[in-house]
Amino acid sequence: MAKMLLEMGQSHLFEHWPEPGTEDDEKRAFFDQVAKLDASYPGGLISYIKTARELLADSKAGRNPFDGFTPSVPSGESLTFGDDNFVQFEEAGVREMKNAAFILVAGGLGERLGYNGIKVALPQESSSETCFLQHYIESILALQEASCKLVQGGCQRQIPFVIMTSDDTHARTLELLESNAYFGMSPTQVKLLKQEKVACLADNDGRLAVDPKNKYTIQTKPHGHGDVHSLLYSSGLLNIWRDAGMRWVLFFQDTNGLLFKAIPASLGVSATKQYHVNSLAVPRKAKEAIGGIAKLTHADGRTMVINVEYNQLDPLLRATVNPDGDVNCETGYSPFPGNINQLILELGPYIEELTKTGGAIKEFVNPKYTDATKSSFKSSTRLECMMQDYPQTLPPTARVGFTVMDIWLAYAPVKNNPEDAAKVPKGNPYHSATSGEMAIYRANSLILKKAGVKVEDPVLQVFNGQEVEVWSRVTWKPKWGLTFIDVKNKVSGSMVTCHLEAQMGTYFHRR
Ligand code: UTP
Q1: Which helix (H) or strand (E) holds 71?
Q2: By 3-state DSSP, what share of the chain in percent is helix, strand and coil, each rounded to 5?
Q3: pLDDT band at 511, cuts 50/70/90?
Q4: Dihedral angle sign, alpha carbons of residues 182, 185, 187, 193
């Protein structure tokens, strides 16, 4: 390990070491950490440092990773909630669900939210106080039951549920599960995979950063949710699932209380259109601060369908096909739909790809430079990777598509603390606990309305400095209504009204 570090230009790590025989335990601990960093990165530290040098040089030179590519609009499916097409995709999705595994990426620090617990333990709304993790587990169990019922004679399939954790979230996630009897799921159905942090970089030469508080420790930071692919690959779970006849892997994030309303139809789209990769998306206004899904074609013939960050998409369009950049089309939205980072991958082609790459995802680096010479950093940086960059290495034959859903149905993440949310420019989403909660009531109210229920109009109210639409505060267990048809069947033929009471909250009244 010492020889490797010296060969890789890391002699500074040993600069302040005392004579042999002094502080040997600390020195051993240093090498234990080096060995761990080496083992947990595909290709080891040598590969990490080499990639870091290349990416830092690109960043210093201001090179755009998509230079040479021309964007165009990829093909995908756009769904309208409740119409026949939607209902058919939901049916197809529920049928396929027994062949799916769910992966929750929950290793993030949640710095923007400023909550010191784990995000999945937060209640998704305050009427039932169900926490995100409970809601996810109950949704998966309800889907499992509904899907197995469609098999003649029933089936015993348990939908696997994997949670990617990190040192910041692992113990508390396990504790939340154990102290709540896994919210009704069988403990063997749940697997926790812990991602490791990566070494920080002190300068453009890729020198590893020493922890300012301990000269025997290399500073580390999270590597991003892209780690989920290499972790899944090395866990051996993918092959076990394939051998058990499973077909789909669904990835989702920690605090989107709406997601499971969009899952059945999206899986239906994957199954019907035979997509190897299906990204869930929402309509996106041109230049809106959310990545756009685009097809990129290189002059040398390479193509990929990929999420392009909004600050890269507009300049790329300007430099290639449209001097006006990203503009709305006749629908009033950008033709490039907004990526919400929930992916459905077909298991067979996924395994095939990971066998080639080991699950390594194209990384990026985002150093904050001290000045325009870009020669030093304000604080150490590290390589990062994102799970949605998975399609970058796929062959042109891969079937990569997307499913666009109404935003009210599919996407209301809780990422920002109340103070920062209140400062969000008007018209932009708050992405706070307040907006996340209100989005659940609104979606449930709109679903009921479409199913024929009389629902009072919403009122505008300000909570935590954020103006939100307050609808009837309706919540239900996933088991009660998983799909639009489920809900419709439940409420049809009876007189149901949703009342809204400004001060006392709301009640859902059924006679
Ligand atoms: P976010 O973009 O919300 O990042 O992650 P975050 O780290 O949780 O929050 P901030 O940026 O510090 O405020 C999107 C999803 O990816 C997971 C998060 O848990 C969340 O579900 N994630 C993020 C990981 O699993 N690992 C990571 O290293 C980063």
Answers
A1: strand 69-72
A2: 35, 20, 40
A3: very low
A4: negative
* pLDDT, tens digit, 9 for 90 and up, residues 303-338: 999 999 988 899 999 999 999 999 999 999 999 999
Q: How many CA atoms lie within 13 A of 434 on its CB side?
A: 20
User: CA 396, 410, 384 angle in degrees (round to 5)?
Assistant: 55
Q: How far is the CA of 119 from the centre of ligand 1 (A)?
A: 10
Q: How far apart are CA 301 and CA 158, in angstroms?
A: 43
CA 255 to ligand 1 centroid distance, Å: 10
On the question of pLDDT at 184 being above 70, the answer is yes
Nearest CA to ligand 1 atom 8: 108
User: Can you read off the two tokens belonging to residue 410?
Assistant: 């599919």
Quote the CA–CA distance of 192 and 317 in Å, as a whole number.
Answer: 41
Helix (H), strand (E) at residue 252: strand 248-253
Structure tokens at 320: 């290639």
Closest atom of ligand 1 relative to the 106 alpha carbon: 19
pLDDT tens-digit map of 14-57: 999 999 999 999 999 999 999 999 998 888 999 999 999 999 99
Burial of 458 by CB count in 10 Å (0-12 exposed, 13-18 middle, 19+ buried)? middle
In the prediction, which pLDDT does 498 show? 75
**Substitution site in 168, 253, 411, 419 for ligand 1 pocket (most atoms within 8 Å of beta carbon):** 253
Using the mean position of ligand 1's atoms as its centre, give its distance from the Cα of residue 171 in Å. 17
Does the structure show a pLDDT above 90 at 289?
Answer: no
Q: Which of 162, 286, 290 is nearest to 234 (CA)?
A: 162
- CA-CA distance, 472 to 481, in Å (whole number)? 17
Query: Which residues contact residue 503 at a Cβ distance below 8 angstroms, ignoring those fewer than 6 apart?
Result: none
Atom number of ligand 1 nearest to Cα 416: 13
Atom 7 (ligand 1) nearest CA: 108
pLDDT tens per residue, range 107-155:
998 889 999 999 999 999 999 999 999 999 999 999 999 999 999 988 9
The model's pTM is 0.93
First-to-last C-alpha distance (Å) of the chain: 72
Distance 121 CA to ligand 1 centre (A): 15
Sheet strands (E) in 361-495 = 364-365, 383-384, 400-404, 454-455, 459-463, 466-470
For ligand 1, the distance from its centroid to the CA atom of residue 118, given in whole angstroms, is: 11
What tokens does 162 get? 């994997």
Q: Give the per-residue pLDDT at 501.
A: 62
Of 325, 321, 293, 257, residue with least CA distance to 78 = 293
Site residues for ligand 1, CB cut-off 6 Å: 105-113, 164, 166, 222-225, 253-254, 415
Strand pairing report for 190-194 and 161-165: parallel
Q: Which residues pair with 211 in a beta bridge?
A: none
